[in-house]
């Protein structure tokens, strides 16, 4: 990969705030961080300084004066705040194209703007609940882990986009073991922690209260934590989820493995919505994303906060450097 290979940004749902936060992130960071936006340039906010290019190798030079764009035609016009399923094939293709560029080495990392899953299902028969699962499939069905990370907290939901009623069955020893192993390796490789400290949440209230309020904590989670600890990992749990996210508790670990989506995402979006980054661990390439969604309620108004997108680009850039050993 050339040292100036840009970070590929897939446009995400064009009716959401994705194009706006990408344009704002370029304005703030683009002079120092090569990036390449893939999408329909008609969807960028009016007045965005962009240049259509055809070769990602041109991005680094262009990025100092304009947002480099691989321009694609998504068809019908856009109404901010109103997703059009007709745009869905373009949205999915932009993600796939960005992945191909990263896999070929033409781009250094992938940063995805948020998608609206329903529009992709309606308009493109999208068979995945989110980027995470789609990227795992594009990478060859590798096991992956979702991490939401900010400077104050890192959380990992062991199960992701499934109904709450399906969580207990989905929580198997294999899933939890893979989740912990992938998280531990990524904390070492990408976050520079030589001996990461991992806290594991319980599933049930009070981590099951010794089997009186559910058995998964005692029968599944505790033995697994003991096994990893016996192998030398710094890991503890199961913790009562209600008391593991206050500041003193957070200071005791580098990442919290949580049992389901909201157990992980509520605390981080509460303590650092603006600075949170969604990063997929376990892929053979680097992928980050802002922690927020499409924000249809404010799309097209010019008021979207780009902080999370900027943090996602920063994190991707840091991971590229960490993997290059610099
Ligand atoms: N990585 C991804 O592709 C993600 C996609 N989504 C999708 O986004 C859609 C909407 O999800 P919601 O739950 O409504 O969450 P959301 O994050 O889009 O919006 C929640 C609230 O936060 C505000 N907000 C979000 N981003 C903001 C920004 N950059 N600046 C200022 N305010 C901002 C919104 O205006 C809204 O009031 C759903 O279809 C969901 O699946 C949600 C999260 C991540
Ligand atoms: N709630 C997180 C989310 O929806 C992001 O999912 P993904 O598209 O990154 O898989």
From TrEMBL:
EC number(s) recorded for this UniProt protein: 1.1.1.262
Cofactor: record remark: Binds 1 divalent metal cation per subunit. Can use ions such as Zn(2+), Mg(2+) or Co(2+).
PANTHER family attached to this UniProt entry: 4-HYDROXYTHREONINE-4-PHOSPHATE DEHYDROGENASE, D-THREONATE 4-PHOSPHATE DEHYDROGENASE
Cofactor: Zn(2+); Mg(2+); Co(2+)
Primary role: Catalyzes the NAD(P)-dependent oxidation of 4-(phosphooxy)-L-threonine (HTP) into 2-amino-3-oxo-4-(phosphooxy)butyric acid which spontaneously decarboxylates to form 3-amino-2-oxopropyl phosphate (AHAP).
InterPro entries xrefs: PdxA, PdxA_fam
Reaction catalysis annotation: 4-(phosphooxy)-L-threonine + NAD(+) = 3-amino-2-oxopropyl phosphate + CO2 + NADH
Subunit structure: Homodimer.
GO cellular component, as recorded: cytoplasm
Protein name according to UniProt: 4-hydroxythreonine-4-phosphate dehydrogenase
Keywords: Cobalt, Cytoplasm, Magnesium, Metal-binding, NAD, NADP, Oxidoreductase, Pyridoxine biosynthesis, Zinc
Lineage, highest ranks first: Bacteria, Pseudomonadati, Pseudomonadota, Alphaproteobacteria, Rhodobacterales
Compartments, as annotated in UniProt: Cytoplasm
GO biological process: pyridoxal phosphate biosynthetic process; pyridoxine biosynthetic process
NCBIfam families: pdxA (TIGR00557), PRK05312.1 (NF003699)
Amino acids binding a divalent metal cation: 161, 206, 261
Extra remark: The active site is located at the dimer interface.
Similarity comment: Belongs to the PdxA family.
Residue positions binding substrate: 131-132, 269, 278, 287
Recorded metabolic or biological pathway in which this protein acts: Cofactor biosynthesis; pyridoxine 5'-phosphate biosynthesis; pyridoxine 5'-phosphate from D-erythrose 4-phosphate: step 4/5
Entry's Gene Ontology molecular function annotations: 4-hydroxythreonine-4-phosphate dehydrogenase activity; cobalt ion binding; magnesium ion binding; NAD binding; zinc ion binding
């Amino acid at each position: 990969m050339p040292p100036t290979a840009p970070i590929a940004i897939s446009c995400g749902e064009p009716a959401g705030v994705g194009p706006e936060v990408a344009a704002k992130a370029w304005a703030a960071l683009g002079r120092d961080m090569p990036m390449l936006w893939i999408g329909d340039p008609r969807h960028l906010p009016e007045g965005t300084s962009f240049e259509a290019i055809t070769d990602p190798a041109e991005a680094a030079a262009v990025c100092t004066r304009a947002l480099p764009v691989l321009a694609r035609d998504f068809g019908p016009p856009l109404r901010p705040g109103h997703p059009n399923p007709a745009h869905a094939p373009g949205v999915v293709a932009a993600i796939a194209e960005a992945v191909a560029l990263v896999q070929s080495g033409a781009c250094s990392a992938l940063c995805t703007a948020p998608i609206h899953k329903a529009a992709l299902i309606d308009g493109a028969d999208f068979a995945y609940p989110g980027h995470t699962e789609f990227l795992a499939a594009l990478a060859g069905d590798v096991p992956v882990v979702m991490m939401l990370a900010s400077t104050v907290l890192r959380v990992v939901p062991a199960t992701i986009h499934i109904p709450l009623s399906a969580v207990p069955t989905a929580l198997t020893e294999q899933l939890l073991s893979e989740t912990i192993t992938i998280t531990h390796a990524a904390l070492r490789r990408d976050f520079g922690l030589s001996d990461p400290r991992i806290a594991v949440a319980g599933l049930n209230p009070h981590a099951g209260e010794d089997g009186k309020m559910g058995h998964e904590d005692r029968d599944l989670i505790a033995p697994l934590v003991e096994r990893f600890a016996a192998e030398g990992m710094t890991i503890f749990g199961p913790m009562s989820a209600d008391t593991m996210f206050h500041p003193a508790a957070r200071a005791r670990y580098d990442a919290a493995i949580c049992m389901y989506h909201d157990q992980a995402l509520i605390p981080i979006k509460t303590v650092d919505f603006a600075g949170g980054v969604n990063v997929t661990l376990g892929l053979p390439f680097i992928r980050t994303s802002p922690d927020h969604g499409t924000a249809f309620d404010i799309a097209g108004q010019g008021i979207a906060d780009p902080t999370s997108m900027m943090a996602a680009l920063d994190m991707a850039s840091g991971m590229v450097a960490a993997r290059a050993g610099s």
